[in-house]
Amino acid sequence: MTALAFLLIPVVIVAVGSVVLWWRGRQPSSVESGIESFQREMRALSPEAEAEGPQRPPPFDPSSRRPPKPAEDG
Q: From residue 38, how far is each of 35, 42, 43 by CA, in Å?
């Protein structure tokens, strides 16, 4: 009986932990959560969101590089 209990206790702990992790990670299914998700996606796609977001630096233009200055002897 002790060998069976020794094996059964970790199985029960893993099963309970798996159920807890599944419960916390599941997608919300209420109507309000669906509406909030849709609004969040629409805000991300709106032109105002692009204007407010971080600006990218302009692409690198190799023709704008200047030749290095010669070293001064001194």
A: 5, 6, 9
DSSP line for 21-72: HHHHHSPP-SHHHHHHHHHHHHHHHSHHHHHHSPPPPPPP-GGGPPPPPPPP
Q: Which residues contact 49 (CB under 8 A, 6 or more apart)?
A: 43
What is the pLDDT, as a whole number, of residue 74?
54
Q: At 15, is the secondary structure helix, strand, or coil? A: helix
pTM of the model: 0.42
